[in-house]
Amino acid sequence: MNIGILAHNSKKSLIEDFCIAYKGILMKHEIYATGTTGRRIEEVTNLRIHKFLAGSLGGDKQFTEMIERNDMDLVIIFYNPVIESRREPDVVAITHACDQYNIPVATNIATAEMLILGLDRGDLDWRMQSGSDPVM
Q1: Measuring CA to CA, which residue among 73, 74, 79, 108 is closest to residue 92?
Q2: Domain 2-73+85-127 falls in which CATH fold?
Q3: Which of the two residues, 68 and 133, has the higher pLDDT score?
Q4: Cβ neighbourhood burial of 16 (10 Å; 0-12, 13-18, 19+)
Q5: Are residues 17 and 43 in contact, defined by beta-carbon separation less than 8 angstroms?
Q6: How much is the pLDDT for 77?
Q7: Of 123, 66, 52, nearest to 97 (Cα)?
Q8: pLDDT of 84-135, one tens digit each?
Q9: Which of 24, 28, 45, 55 could disulfide-link to 60, CB 3.0 to 4.6 Å?
Q10: For residue 84, what pLDDT is reported?
Q11: Does residue 60 carry a catalytic annotation?
């Protein structure tokens, strides 16, 4: 499955720790991330990450386009809800696209852990059904 991972600057260490903890699950899937987040995950886990541009340079738009093509199966976004900055990925647009196209999305570590463990159990296998139209 294709897993998308984004993190605001203040959450980069948390996403690194998350990916270290769940490396065994993540290594079975294709991981997509915005530039800096992807590079940092690669450095701490040695996982192969497909990297988009930095979020502020259009990576968030590349991410959203992949969701709109139904090429993303799960999205994890760790963001700081207190800080709004044009230099951070557009969380609202990405979560809106996930909702529109029925893509499971986690915006905090508690939900991310539930989704990643569910993924490992096979709870998201419905995403692999070919020919299904997830748009409702």
Answers
A1: 79
A2: Rossmann fold (3.40.50)
A3: 68
A4: middle
A5: no
A6: 94
A7: 66
A8: 656 656 788 899 999 999 999 999 999 999 999 999 999 988 887 744 454 4
A9: 55
A10: 66
A11: yes
Helices and strands in the chain, H and E counts: 6, 5
Give burial (CB, 10 Å; 0-12/13-18/19+) of 98: buried
Written as six digits, the tokens of 52 are 């988009």
Cα distance between residue 14 and residue 135, in whole Å: 31
For residue 28, pLDDT beyond 60: yes
| Torsion from C-alpha of 134, 127, 42, 50, nearest 10 degrees | -50
Q: Name the residue ranges covered by the structural domains of the chain.
A: 2-73+85-127
Among candidate residues 17, 60, 90, 125, the one labeled active-site is 60
31-54 pLDDT per residue, tens: 999 999 999 999 999 999 999 998
Contact of 74 with 94, CB cutoff 8 Å: no
Question: Residue 99 is which amino acid?
Answer: D
